[in-house]
Amino acid sequence: MTDSRFTPQRADSRWQxxxxxxxxxxADSASAKPKTFVLEMFPYPSGRIHMGHVxxxxxxxxxxxxxxxQGHEVLHPMGWDAFGMPAENAAMERxxxxxxxxxxxxxxxxxxxxxxxxxxxWTRELATCDPDYYGHEQALFLDFxxxxxxxxxxxxxxxxxxxxxxxxxxQVIDGCGWRSGAPVERRKLxxxxxxxxxxxxxxxxxxxxxxxxxxxxxxxQENWIGKSQGLRFRFDVQDAPDGCPKAFDVFTTxxxxxxxxxxxxxxxxxxxxxALAEGNSxxxxxxxxxxxxxxxxxxxxTAEKKGYDTGLCxxxxxxxxxxxxxxxxxxxxxxxxxxxxxxxxxxxxxDLDFARKYxxxxxxxxxxxADPGSESGAGELPIGDEAYxxxxxxxxxxxxxxxxxxxxxxAVIARAEAEGWGEGTTVFRLRDWGISxxxxxxxxxxxxxxxxxxxxxxxRDQLPVVLPMDVSFDxxxxxxxxHPTWRDVPCPRCGTAARxxxxxxxxxxxxxxxxxxxxxxxxxxxxxxxxxxxxxxxTNYIGGVEHAILHLLYARFFTRALNHIGKIGITEPFKxxxxxxxxxxxxxxxxxxxxxxxxEIEKRGDAAFTLSGEPVALGxxxxxxxxxxxxxxPDAILxxxxxxxxxxxxxxxxxxxxxxxxxxxxxxxxxRFVQRLWRIAPIAGETHSGTDDALMRLLxxxxxxxxxxxxxxxxxxxxxxxxxxxxxxxxAAASATRAEAAATLIRLVAPMVPHIAEETWEILGKEGxxxxxxxxxxxxxxxxxxxxxxxxxxxxKLRETLALAKGLPRGEVEAAVMxxxxxxxQLAGAVPKKVIxxxxxxxxxxx
Length: 847
Fold this sequence. Notes:
This protein is an alpha+beta fold. Helix 19 (664-680) crosses helix 21 (715-731), helix 20 (693-711) packs antiparallel against helix 21 and helix 20 runs parallel beside helix 22.
């Protein structure tokens, strides 16, 4: 080597330019090679990449580069999830246009990502805010509309009265809008929906086929879809006032506990509640109070349980002589089941909390198996502060007494169906996907509203419906509502004055099909079916577990919907899914409680101080976040250490599915290894004869192990094996084997540290780019282990190691160990009390 040290400041940009000039990573859809589609979840263009991005894309890059070297045609694209509220917030707060803010951020982040040396096909780059992208999305919306997969109806939403927009449940904080701080209202608006519930059954059932997904993600989706089997039955309202429903339906998964019912309750939006509220000011006030909270099930689950006694009663279906009081309750959801429940306090904690508050009876109807006399109920234990939800036999339940829970469920359903007051049925927790957003920065919904013709799709030859650029954000609300020249148009059918739909599409739609556009950026269609199918499903999809439900579920639905209308031949978009851990860092605060950035402190042993010498309080290690200032700027680290050291640290320091704690010691250790590679590389150019069998075995074990580890996304294990091989090369005597091992090590680390790999490959005079070199293949004959290393212990403490033939008889192992000088010295002629031999692994001599 001409230089004693590797200089990434020069090498990184040089090789990045070479790859771009050679179009090394441009994917060829017409290639006859086996295809691999590697995709990381595309980023929101916030303006700067963070270390979480670096880790995410480094993992995908290793896969993409390795597959290329293994002879695959690899598609590894990049784009920008560019629509969303942050751009509108920037417009309001900084007086900039969302489009300009977004595109400036894209440009800045693209420069940062390119510095990492990622094997990206930039020719397929897309941004969801480009009319070329969202125009095709509008066409797909119309396809779904024609197929009956889109509906429009009234629905309750979280409404921020200050920002004048609908908020997602996650944007409601303690009942207030996350940005405005205003109390959120529960308002009924006309909204557009995708009919995802049409696919609920198959979305749930086909999770079992996704064996390349983490089990925890499949379970999260299964719970979100929430398939429930039970009884739907009718409660007859006694003495119902005029204008009120005379009955209402209830769905329950626990029909076995019907004899334990002590009340019935309906949602605040239930038709019965609405009818009663018209003549009951107290109930109307209660409903208004409940509307102040958000609509999220999780929020309602933790909120105080409140109810309003309507004064009405319903007849118990199994015992018509019994009646149950009817409440309007804040914890009953109109969009799950039927919007009405029966309360069984003894065997449901929520119902128990409610019953205790309103002093309702708590009859126990399921006895624990250990309860004496449980079949007759003679030994019934009273319910305390916790409901009993376990197994047992039915008590206090008439014809059900003595039955186990499951047979009792079946018996109640059978009686309900025979007597005509109910039927067994299946329901899903999953609701239709509300896709309307009262915002500017999103895909315009391609619909025109005409007083004469009603809802009219925008003619396809008028797509895309492009967002107007001349909008203002000086007042709250959706600027599209205040833009007459864009909003007001003639009806495409009758020509009379009409109005564009001013809602835009949920940004989750943008990310529900972008992988199809990457696979096939067709000029005159959203994608070409044949080309897209040649790449899909995505081989490896990488991203955070926070997207386990909504994004992944919506993408699965979108793919199924496209399959349903004949646009694509697959039903699942992602074959393999990997959810990586977060990048974390210590947090720091000064004496006033102000958060400090890592660059504002210095460490002295276990203590930390400001640069002026003031003590700093060390906080928990947490996910890097701007609010707590525990972020590390990737540019500063790249300037100091180069891309390879950053990539190596991201891959080496923790299993990829776990969180990675950022540390300067870690990045400095990675930098030292990069420099070790620089020193080892010249060995590959040595010309020596002779074979080193031990090193040859280590080399081929490393090839096999690294290959397997990368296949399994166990990058930290692959890194550890490369360390081991580097150690073996440095310790070995000069030989042809040592030169071969050094050259192979360069290829093995090339997907992880590509810049130094290219630099050393060129200096050694190797042909072409190392990115195009074939991946090493292990020779099976060198994988056969003929020799093992025994750990030799005395009284459980390691004293020596000994290499012996594999499978050696116990007596020969003991004899060889006893001849070791350290063992003989320790024994000093004494006879061991016991000798424990673990074949091929360990010998422990007990004195």
